[in-house]
Design a protein that fits this description.
One of its GO terms (molecular function) is acyltransferase activity, transferring groups other than amino-acyl groups. Keywords: Membrane, Transmembrane, Transmembrane helix. This is Esterase. With 383 residues, the protein is α/β, with parallel strands linked by helices. The chain folds into two domains: 65 residues; 279 residues, Rossmann fold (3-Layer(aba) Sandwich), CATH 3.40.50. 37% of the residues lie in helices and 14% in strands. It has 13 helices and twelve strands. The strands form three sheets. An eight-stranded mixed beta sheet has the order 1-2-4-3-7-8-9-12, sandwiched between helices. Strand 10 and strand 11 form a beta hairpin. The longest helix is centred in the first third of the chain and has 34 residues.
Length: 383
Amino acid sequence: MTPAAEIGIMTPGLATAMICAALAVPVLLAVWWGWRSKRGWWRNLVHGAGRWLILVTSQLVALMAVFLSVNNTYGFYTSWGELVGEAPAAPRHDLVDIHSPQVKRIAISKNNPHPDGLMAGIMMPGTDPRNAHVPVWLPPQYFERSQTHTRFPVLYWIGGEGDSGDRDNISIPLVGPALNLIKNYQANPFVIVFLPGEIRTGQDTECTDVGGIKQQSWIMRTAITRIQKHYLVGRTAASKFVAGYSTGGYCAANFTIKYHTEFRAGFGLAPYYHPVYGQPQLSQVTQQTRDENSPIMRVKARNVPSEVRFLSVMSRADKSTWGDAANPAMSYGQVWADGQDFWNHAHTMDQFAFILTAEGGHHTSTYTPFISESMRWLGQYGL
């Protein structure tokens, strides 16, 4: 028998037990209602309070049963501590090889108007109103007079499903770690562009062109082009990088390989490696689009350019990222998480690096401790 203190959120049978409890509570309610008496006002009062309590309890148990069932499938949380907001500690040492980059030691002068950098932004055409604003973080050195004509390396960050550009830095706080690295001369000054995870609210096109929503073209032709015109950022592959979380992590993996002449390197937090569509995109996408945007297919075919460099950060407990290669979770008839399958085929290839952790589900607090290390990993390639 499992002691109560050892019953984890992913304990086998817990979701089933809660479902049984959800069914049992209404039965208890029926028994309670059967115990009716008109012999005293206090009995009526207790009866009314008890009925209310059982109704509320029944609803809470039912909600918990649904949550546990979904969580067991997708692995959003792997412990009760994660559920109440406990975050894992940042690693004390590097979990992936990083060569020390040559950092330009550009001091921040006393008259710098933005010694902690500035969150600026630009309105983009081609999206709905919610996703039109693209925030752009500019490092302190951007405002130094000595750097007036300098084009800074740029990291294009792609948010997860449902993240607007304005929410990106809330879901995954990038600016704080970036500023710390820059001020401590652990990275060159660089710009961060926060791209939305979708350009039509509620329409997850997986950073591809499907069903009339051309998100990939929007990123490559509209967003990046306008950023380059409005800000002093790099225009060549040597100074352009891409990264993201969850869906954005998949997009970053796909772009790093597919557009290897446009991006020097990239990383993904909790990524997957092939597009996974919902409706209506599922009925609109062509097999050609799937094939052209599948990193795992390219890896299995060993069709990855030698200059590609991509870092994957994954938790083996994250069912929505790592998955189970032998028994994969499915979504709309498609394989869902394929991280383990990707690692099996890619970990011996020079183009790919991995940070693997044993704990943590598919939520942002699992992956935020690895932001600084991931940025420093990009730094060795010019970020």
